[in-house]
Amino acid sequence: MNFIWSSIISLIFLLSCNESANQEQYDVVVLGAGTGAVAAAIQSARSGAETILVNPQPWLGGMLTSAGVSATDGNHKLHAGLWAEWRALLRSHYGGPDSLFTGWVSNTMFEPHIGEQYWRYLAKKEKRLTIYDSTRWGDIKKLDEWLIQLPSVDKQISGQILIDGTDLGDVAAQVGVGFDLGMDSHHTTGESMAPETANEIIQDFTYAAILKDYGPGQNKTIEKPLGYRKDLYDCSCQHNCDDPKMHPCDVMLNYGKLPNQKYMINWPFHGNDYYANMVNLNRQERDSVYQLAKEHTLGFVYYIQTELGFSHLGLADDEFPTTDQLALMPYHREGRRIHGMTQLNVNHISKPFDHNLYKTGIAVGDYPIDHHHGKHPESPDIEFPNVPSFSIPIGAIIPKSIDDFLIADKAMSVTNIVNGASRLQPVIIQVGQAAGLIAAMSVEQQKSPKQLNIREAQRALIEAQGYIMPYIDVSPEDAFFGAVQRIGATGILKGRPVPFKWANQTWFDPDSLLVVDELKANLIEYDAGFSDLELLGKHISQSQVQDIIQFGCKLFDLECQHDGIKIIPYNFPVTRAEFAIELDLGLNPFGLKDVDFEGTFME
Fold first, then answer.
1. Both ends of the chain: CA-CA distance in Å?
2. Do the beta carbons of residue 532 and residue 523 sit within 8 Å?
3. What is the model's pLDDT at position 562?
4. What are the C-alpha distances in Å from 123 to residues 52, 54, 118, 200, 462?
């Protein structure tokens, strides 16, 4: 009986849709105001798909712009794809890289409205991209394709692929994708530092403010906020504070110093972080929580102006188009995390080459695991491990339970621990770009994302100057970038992971000589047939490169047509970069063996 009623309801929905005169058909539909949403929409259109972005906010850019978190964290030297392209526009606008290094938290700091301006610029260049700003969606149905109602503009749109570009994974939840919320148990994830028992505690969120220096003698003190308590903000810096480790107050402000004498207020230590798990609340309930968070931020602004004596710093009147001059939306660090085709946990990140998920990478990050739990009194104390830079696997953005659906923002399939590193802005730009490219590829091939060839998707991302391996010393400007990325993803040449402060690393060492024993072991791991290959000496010579290629061609029954680039004498040792170039050209191991979502080679 339930099946009959479900069928009737679906039929009624379909008939009502067909009767509507306001229908628009697209290949790819992106829903959300997140940073990943605009990246996904731009890349989908670039890749040839007719794309629509339904954006609930008047601005593009999500946490980078609408949420006012205009100090980017991580990936300064891993400048992949759209992240690098958008950053280059900011650098040009402000006069070069050094002009963006205005605070001490980030190498790329900018005014939110300028960031939005350049996302808008990139989006407008795409003729296949339609954007509905300040528009919310209603019902979503999946029949032969996705059908989405837009009540405020009296339209219905459709698309083959649907992308969730929300901060909290709202679209995924709406269409029935399974998800996790809060802290995982270490019994489930195998992460030794995770708590014994799972809970629903998520990271604090922030309603950011941008202050502007109006000059000496100017008093821009706001009206005392409702319920203001100065003790909530004591010890945010060295004022009414006995903690010797706390920063001086001018240093606290310079944390988020932006160009043009502005200051981003997004401070975790007795500042304007706020705790509430509003993920499962409806829109009205969320708005009530957000209002409380806004009042908490205004209280911190008032404290800065009165207690700390910075009355000349006032809410910027030339940033956000809001009546309260606060950000357009909150900065959510964490929400739902979908059940994907695979889940990235901290063990995969800590020792990447002990596992296979790195072989399926579609984005990279280098930020440490950083959680904000200062405002929840019952949050377990977790000692987060040092990690190297890392790759996001393709299976993390593809749900298990729903076809023709992708994640483009923080709701990807990672553990709660990993979310502390994967949530950062440059990573999310890449995740969104990958989602857009995969969506367009799915449309072109008339396949679900689950059915796509992972190597084809990775190759396309590399061609778009995206990283799939997080090598700090090989950039898209290098002629051997593509070869190194591809060979690295096969495991034939592995990187050197190095946890390092706030910008973790993995080195490829392109100029180092290739060691015979290491290469032989990696070749056998790639295919056991290489165990019969004889390699002598300490370092691989040019002649041995040819032996390896010819052996591989016979092993895989290929016609050998590449005789090597012969850029060095025949018996001289080759560097790792030179070997990557020759093996990529001569044998193409990246294309020879496909991988599944776990990174296992498919026979």
1. 45
2. no
3. 61
4. 11, 13, 8, 37, 21
The residue whose two tokens read 């898209």 is 476
Q: How far apart are CA 316 and CA 381, in angstroms?
A: 37
- pTM score above 0.85: yes
Q: What CA–CA distance (Å, rounded) separates 164 from 292?
A: 27
For residue 263, give the nearest of 316, 210, 301 by alpha carbon: 210
Closest to 41 in 3D by CA, of 20, 22, 62: 62
Who contacts 595 (Cβ-Cβ below 8 Å, separation ≥6)?
A: 356, 359, 360, 454, 455, 601, 602
- Rounded Cα distance, 86 and 70, in Å: 13
**Mean pLDDT calculated for residue range 70-90:** 97
C-alpha triplet 465, 466, 468: angle, nearest 5°: 135
346-376 residues labelled b (16+ CB within 10 A) or e (exposed): bbbbbebeebbbbbbbbbbbbbbbbbbbebb
> What is the arithmetic mean of pLDDT over 373-392?
94
Q: Which residue has the tokens 């299976």?
A: 395
Q: For the chain, state the CA radius of gyration.
A: 25
Angle at CA of residue 100, ends 95 and 106, nearest 5°: 165
Enumerate residues 6+ apart whose C-beta is below 8 A from 460: 47, 437, 441
Task: Kindly list the structural domains of the chain, giving each domain's residue range(s) and its CATH number in brackets, ordered by start.
Answer: 22-184+335-452 (3.50.50.60), 205-315 (no CATH), 486-592 (no CATH)
- Which pLDDT tens digit goes with each residue over 102-145? 999 899 999 999 999 999 999 999 999 999 999 999 999 999 99
Judge contact between 205 and 276, C-beta under 8 A: yes
Write down how long the chain is: 603
Bridge-based pairing state of the strands 273-274 and 257-258? unpaired
pLDDT given at position 1: 43
What pLDDT, on the 0 to 100 scale, is given for residue 255? Answer: 95
Per-residue confidence (pLDDT) for residue 275, from 0 to 100: 97
What distance in Å separates the CA atoms of residue 241 and residue 233, rounded to the nearest whole number? 10
What is the Cα–Cα distance from 434 to 400, expressed in whole angstroms?
18
Strands 313-315 vs 273-274: parallel, antiparallel or unpaired? unpaired
Structure tokens that stand for 88 in this block = 């280059």
- Cβ atoms of 380 and 200 within 8 Å: the answer is no
What is the Cα–Cα distance from 140 to 147, expressed in whole angstroms? Answer: 6
d(CA 238, CA 246): 6
